[in-house]
Amino acid sequence: MEFRIKALGPTLAVLTHDIDAVDEADVRRQLALQGMRIISLVPLGRRRLLARNSKLPLVIFSQELVALLDAGLSLVESIEALTEKEGNAAQRRPLERILARLYEGQTLAAALAEHPDTFPTLYVATVRASERTGALREALTRYIDYQRQIDSLRKTLINASIYPAVLLGAGLLVTLFLLGYVVPRFSTIYEQLGSDLPFASRMLLRWGQLLEAHTFGVLVCLAALLSGAAYTLSRRQTRALIGAWIARIPSIGRQLYIYQLARLYRTLGMLLRGGMPAVTALQMSAGLLGESLRGRFAQATQAVREGQSLGNAMDLYKLTTPVASRMLRVGERSGNMGEMTERIAAFYDEEIARWVAIVTRLIEPLFMTVIGLLIGVIVVLMYFPIFQLAGSVQ
């Protein structure tokens, strides 16, 4: 969801932004972490396609900034160069404002925080932590790697679903063609045979007669059903219920759980390696989890705040697996928790990739079998009277 907020910034300046968040609570959490106080908050609905296209590509911006810093340019010179080369006016505008703030003597993190719709809280926090240690280039490089790994996992899931989706779509189109065009024409041919047909064939041919006589009405009803289904699925509560139902399926539910943990541990690893305190890193990572895990994660965060170790807290509230729990304890003993949490995320990514590969190999022949059987049944029911006539002639 997109929200338009008017807030009082850390410098007591009134700022107006459009911010993308899960809900109002997520907006308030993001602004609180930036030290901003909300004056007004108005939901705008989903972000428009044009607004998406006008956003600054964050990974490309970070890569170019790192390249310029490596070339020996100062931070201000690097931002100047990126602003001058940007041809898209909508993408150049935030860079110009950031450059103006740098001229005024503000830090880069403070300048980025004024554009939450372009630079997410995680990015701003990474930059702010790096300013304490003077390792901006390393922090940006970690964020680039983090985003690439997140995108790689997302692409793996999307690519695995493309072929089954195409197969299912093609099967549905063929089925609709048979039911909407071929069956009505067969129904007029077999109309005289009536009661001599099997029950299933009669029902199929009656559908053809109904479509032939009331084509417009049937199409309107189908359009209304599709529109109602689309509207229902667009509601967040409906998607949450569907997600909760899917999560109850043992195999799928576990992989959804592992996917959320992979994102969580990767984000924690990046923040901890950037010098972020553990409690702050946990608070900033809370939005990555689904509703079913946020309560337990809040309890784990409170336990760490009270002095309990991260490994024990995550294990106590079932936010880890046996292997990951052992790796967390090793990270605590070695003092290298950031790197260890990233290794846990990589371990989870490999497990998800293996599961996706297995499911893809199983689901493709399953879809082909189901679609083939469906189309075959329709064709047999249509041609059954011909077989019956041929038998009677013999």
Gist of the model:
The chain has 394 residues and is mainly α. It has 17 helices and three strands. A three-stranded antiparallel β-sheet has the order 2-1-3, covered by helices on one side.
Give short descriptive properties of this protein.
394 residues; mainly alpha; Ubiquitin-like (UB roll); three-stranded antiparallel β-sheet; single chain; Receptor-associated Protein
In words, what does this structure look like?
- With about 400 residues, the chain is mostly helical.
- The protein has three domains: about 1-55, Ubiquitin-like (UB roll), CATH 3.10.20; about 55-120, no CATH class; about 140-394, Receptor-associated Protein (Up-down Bundle), CATH 1.20.81.30.
- The chain has 17 helices and three strands.
- It has helices at about 25-35, 50-55, 60-70, 75-85, 90-105, 110-115, 120-135, 135-190, 200-215, 215-235, 235-245, 250-275, 280-285, 290-305, 310-315, 320-335, 335-394; strands at about 1-10, 15-20, 35-45.
- Strands 2-1-3 form a three-stranded antiparallel β-sheet, with helices on one face.
- It is elongated, with a radius of gyration of 28 Å.
- Mean pLDDT is about 80; it is low at about 45-55.
Strand content: 5-15%
What topology, given as strand order, has the largest sheet? 2-1-3
Radius of gyration: 28 Å
Q: What is the helix content?
A: over 70%
CATH class of the largest domain: Mainly Alpha
Structural class: mainly alpha
Count of separate structural domains: 3
- What string, H for helix and E for strand, traces the elements in order? EEHEHHHHHHHHHHHHHHHH
Q: What is the CATH topology descriptor of the largest domain?
A: Receptor-associated Protein
